Amino acid sequence: MKKLPLSFYLRNDVVKISKELLGKVLVTNWHNELTSGRIVETEAYEGEIDRASHASKGRTPRTQVLFGEGGKAYVYLCYGIHQMFNIVTNYTDAPHAILIRAVEPLEGINIMLERTGKEKLDETLTRGPGNVGKAFGFHTSQCGISLTSDELYIADDGFKVTKAMVGTSPRIGVDYAGDHAAWHYRFFIRGNRYVSGKIKS
User: Which has the closest alpha carbon to 57: 176, 188, 171, 140?
Assistant: First the structure.
């Protein structure tokens, strides 16, 4: 596997990056507990102009990392329970981000089962962003960690995703964003059983 370089994240097309992340491998190695999985669902958030984005309300202590240089983790707590892992893209003061919504497990499945309290592997282990966060050991304390570190990175193992394999839909759970909720900024690998929510495109 080849770790993606910082330049992958330092681009201004968050939609393109979201699509290109499909098929790539998410790797975490917290305290020598290695887990990895193939990214099969993403959601793009286009900064201050996007009412579904946390950045739309401006710079706050929580969103500060979004306004920094891309290539870092943005981890936030949802409903006081779920640790949501996002990838910051673009350059300083252009707060784009991509939510990782679903991953197909590859390595460290026993570690993921222990973290989630599950007894056996099935599609619920890493389906949906809350489950991804739990299985991969994410915590808000990791917010701002570089995606080129040894603890956290995205890698390319040569897996090819064709245009025909990619489905799109409006994002999930952002009804508060008005007409921005209808943007087709959710991307997924068609037919993959780990994809969350509705999979029709």
Answer: 176
Residue 200 resides in a domain: no
Q: Provide CB contacts within 8 A for 67, sequence distance 6+.
A: 55, 59, 92, 93, 95
Residue of 197, 140, 135, 174 lying closest to 54 (CA atoms): 174
Residue 103 lies in a domain: yes
pTM: 0.94
| Tokens of residue 156, six digits | 């390319």
pLDDT tens track for 47-97: 888 888 988 888 898 899 999 999 999 999 886 778 999 999 999 999 999
CA distances to 8, 62, 68, 99, 106 from 51, in Å: 25, 17, 19, 15, 34
Which positions ≥6 away from 173 have C-beta within 8 Å?
A: none
Per the CB < 8 A criterion, the answer to whether 55 and 97 are in contact is yes
Q: Does 88 fall in a domain?
A: yes
Pairing of strands 96-107, 152-156: unpaired
Report the number of distinct structural domains present in the chain.
1
Dist. CA 187–CA 197, nearest whole Å:
12
Residue 8 is given by DSSP the state H
Domain CATH number, residue 75: 3.10.300.10
Residue 166: CB atoms within 10 A of its CB come to: 16
